[in-house]
Amino acid sequence: MRIGMFFREALRSIRANAAISVAATVTALIAVLILGAFIPSFMYVRSAVDAQTEKVDVDIFIADTATVAQVDALREKLNGLRTDGTAAAVTYVSKDDALRIMRERLRDPSVLDELPSNPLPAKFNVRPTNPEDADVIVAAVKNDPALDPIEGIVYPETTADRLLTAAKFVQWAGLALIGILLLAAVLLIGNTIRLSIFARRREVEVMRLVGATNWFIRWPFMIEGVICGLVGATAAVALLWGIKVGVVDAWAAGADTALTKTGSAAGTIAFPLLTLILVGAGAILGAVGSGITLRRFLRV
């Protein structure tokens, strides 16, 4: 069978050019190792930023002098925003609830007992569906007659803008870096495979002279690249697993920092899925690197 012949030819080439094959495998190992360390780090940072961005809420405080009709009208307006998808949740917090929450947050709640009355206004807490929708919510209710004249609307606009900017930067910078890593890996593996092709250039020329098609010549080299990429990726995954178990998991279990307290909202990619991605990336990088290099040698 022809595919079996291609595999045997690829294995023969690997054995005959052991030093070059080891160089290609090590190149794939380094490229996949860097990619494997970067992907979960990128996803964790992005997840953490997204988790903080989702906490950007809009507090709409209600005046004590607002009538029941005005409060109901404001409630209907906010429920309309939730219906059209602008707001994800609308929660009413009464004056008594606001005082209770304040009491729970204070280290010494007894200081509130000295107050002659409850000074805290009632409010609607609105969580936007998307952080960008916060401005839409503010614009929809900023002139409502039920608003408290002093508190009005509290919305961490500067913080939200910074978080959104950070989220976009992390996304585009991460994609750019992944692209650069993949391109560098293809070029490095391609240059290494080129040495193997150059060592067998006479053989390639003879095959062309006897009428072999470009794909007939290309397949053994591409399979060779795939084998080197798979072996390098497998070794990289093994190293990453050792680092994960021996270093990262041990550090995370004993760490007591804000980064590790991000909570369940922040996460990263599961290691089995990362393994599949990296092994597949190693095979693809080896094949693409070989294919690009062969293209130059097979030009008429």
Features:
300 residues; alpha+beta; four-stranded antiparallel β-sheet; 4 strands; 2 domains; Alpha-Beta Plaits
| Average of the residue pLDDT scores | 78
Main sheet: strand order: 2-3-1-4
Number of strands: 4
Q: Could you say how many structural domains there are in total?
A: 2
Number of helices: 9
Q: Could you say which overall geometry the principal axes of the C-alpha atoms support?
A: elongated
Q: Considering DSSP H and I runs of 4 or more, what fraction of the residues is helical? A: 55-70%
Radius of gyration: 31 Å
| Beta-strand residue percentage | 5-15%
Largest sheet: 4 strands, antiparallel
Can you walk me through this structure?
It is a single chain. With 300 residues, the chain is α+β, with helices and mostly antiparallel strands. It folds into 2 domains: 187 residues, no CATH class; 99 residues, Alpha-Beta Plaits, CATH 3.30.70.3040. Helices cover 69% and strands 6% of the residues. The chain has 9 helices and 4 strands; from the N terminus they run ααβαβαβαβαααα. The two termini are 29 Å apart.
